[in-house]
Please model this.
Amino acid sequence: MFNSTRIDKFNQLETPFYFYDMNILEQTLNSIQSESSKYGYHIHYAVKANANPKIMQKIQSYGFGADCVSGNEISRSVECGFPASKIVYAGVGKSDKEIKTALETDIFCFNCESIPEMELINELAKQEGKVAKIAIRINPNVNANTHHYITTGIEENKFGINRWEFDSVIENLKTFKNIKLIGLHFHIGSQITDLSVFKGLCLRINEIQEWFKERQIFVDLINVGGGFGVDYENPDENPIPDFTTFFAIFDEFLNLKANQELHFELGRSVVAQCGSVMSRVLYVKNGVNTKFAILDAGMTELLRPALYQAYHKIENVSANGETDKYDVVGPICESSDCFGKSVKLPKTKRNDLIALRTTGAYGEAMASQYNLRNIANAVFSDEIDPA
Ligand SMILES: *Cc1c(COP(=O)(O)O)cnc(C)c1O
Model:
């Protein structure tokens, strides 16, 4: 990832910045494309993972659709070349304005999370003289076995529609003339590395499909969302998630009806490994029992550790040899602004270049200006690597 040519370039740049290895991104996209096309699956990129226009344009060039969770993401997707006919739109709190944006854009499908939301989409579609296509987001009550902040598919969650509400959804849908049910949507959480969870999801969807079949309700598509995890511990050994095994699980365990399409909304697994936050050591400070390596990047550039104790591999790319242990922290006035405790690094000094790995997903996308900091630049390998 960090050869000497790249490091020389980095040393001329102001830190912190987001670095994107476009070769890794392309290899990932090639793998998704070849593995999903074996089964004719439809891929939507979950824009919230990384909405950088250059990243989005690259993803779009592979013919994938977009999965959006706000009106602005819909607009950004269109600007980056995603066809409206491949845009899906989810979210528990879609505003009137956002729904109007989606209707005017003529997106492919709304993933609806409640009856009041369907009522509003129906109403606004009627005003526009349109019929909006919807999928209902079902809460399948499957535990993703991931961090509780990124688990979305169990019953006490704010997301989706629970089983005991199905009857009332069906009754309501009959009266909503400006929406058309075309699919069932599921998304149970993120950073799922235990693949048996997806098998469990498939089996649950099979049961749910039976329930709908008994009521003579047939939908064109199943959307299983995203959530496929990446290897945060070993980014160099496993830069490309195992999409072969991932898609094969759905082929093996999910019973699709004749002509039914299967859609995915992949975010993290597409972009996580291509990105790193590059920063410099400002100071090495001695505490009572610890040494602190204080970086010029903080939770403003990478929120995940502060937000949900996420692990990111930390690398000193300027040094090697004898090691020591450091608490690696950012400059922000919050104790949670910490990237790792007791991290083993080569002896580290002021101005060393530090890489926080696997930050392409939910890194730049979650940047903030807290402490009135500047938003960091993005640097792309194809702009700095020799041709
Ligand atoms: C966040 C999200 C995704 C993408 O999840 P990843 O874990 O990044 O793959 C897909 N669908 C919905 C509805 C989401 O909210």
Summary: The radius of gyration is 22 Å.
